Amino acid sequence: MSADRLECPESFPAPSRRPDVLFLVGEHSADQQAARMVRDWKKKRPEAVVCAWGGPALAKEGAELIYDFTQASVVGLVEVLRNATYFRQMMARVVAWIEEHRPRVVCLVDYPGFNLRLAEQLRKRQVSTKGGGDVRLIYYIAPQVWAWKKKRRFTMARLLDALAVIFPFETEVFADTDLEAEFVGHPFLGEPEENTPTYDPEGPILLLPGSRRQAVRRILPLLLRGYAQFLKTGTDRKGVIIYPDEEVRTEGENLLAAKEFADLRQHLVWQSKQDPIRGSAVLTSSGTMSLHCALAGIPGGIVYRAHPITYWIGRMVISIPYLGINNLLLKEPMYPEFIQGAADPVKLAKRLEQCVSDKETIEQTRQHRDRLIELLQADAQADAATWLDTQWQLVE
């Protein structure tokens, strides 16, 4: 598959038998959260057949991987338009697969640009229960309708049978619809995983450019330039580039091969996202790993650069003060945000200096972490696996 243009397979494998649940997951982070749900649910229903348009985490937990959809993750209007043919073909083939194999439940996980369009197609084709069919359609990790496209909640109510949300305030967002929205707890506050980040005041600088190749191309060079400027202070702290898979690592290594980074390579280490992550400071994209690091109390900053057209359109349609979910939840910048032209190497280096040396910054980060945990620990009626089991039983 091309790094720029994606190609849709002509066909997809059949399941071993009629699936109990089919997951539709388009991103690495959602793949991990869905995998945790499957792992816990299979303890209750070990004989259940789970299939997925997902990724390696779901496959590891026993899901029959129909297609690795996480490798096709793109972000931004320009990138989506470039791959419009791929997504159109994929939509048609996913709908046809569901029509043929009739999973009892389809669980859509995040990725609203694709998943809600899929839900609409399943309703129109009379496959989903909302369209008069027999496939129950549920959604885990709601689109952030509280931030933008607020009317989308009514579309979701028309298409979906149930919704599980991971922020306690989200149940109120859907209160004026007839969609059952249940808070199931935030997955990051569950059982700690081996690769959950931890704060180490003497540790390296973490560089997290994200999990999408297109975003990595724009963001990793910014992180590298900021780290290079930081090294000019005389520090000997290593930089650790965290990557989710080998394709993203290859993308990053190609960028690092540029002449401007020749002197920097000796200071850098590549580390898989699956290995234990320890750091004294972090420069991160605005994805879910930024929240992981925030909950670990690692001081840092968010760095982001989109295609100029995507950014311009986004500024017009999104009315939120911050990109980082930790900043949005706290209503203040736990992680200062360096977006587009503001991602200047000198500014990034100064932020890293504060993170490793300034006691006030370190203490403030700890206080922000404690507030985040308190905000996300609101009581949940059930966990995600219990919610899934309830939805599955409703079609038995």
Descriptive overview:
The protein has about 400 residues and is of the alpha/beta class. It folds into two domains: about 20-185 and about 380-395, Rossmann fold; about 200-375, Glycogen Phosphorylase B (Rossmann fold, 3-Layer(aba) Sandwich). Helix content is about 40%, strand content about 15%. The protein is built from 15 helices and 15 strands. The chain has helices at about 30-45, 55-60, 75-80, 85-100, 110-125, 150-160, 170-175, 215-230, 245-255, 290-295, 310-315, 325-330, 345-355, 360-375, 385-395, and strands at about 20-25, 50-55, 65-70, 105-110, 135-140, 160-165, 180-185, 200, 205-210, 240-245, 270, 280, 280-285, 300-305, 335-340. It has a seven-stranded parallel β-sheet with strand order 3-2-1-4-5-6-7, with helices on both faces. Strand 5 (about 135-140), helix 6 (about 150-160) and strand 6 form a beta-alpha-beta unit. Helix 8 crosses helix 9 (about 245-255). The radius of gyration is 21 Å and the shape is globular.
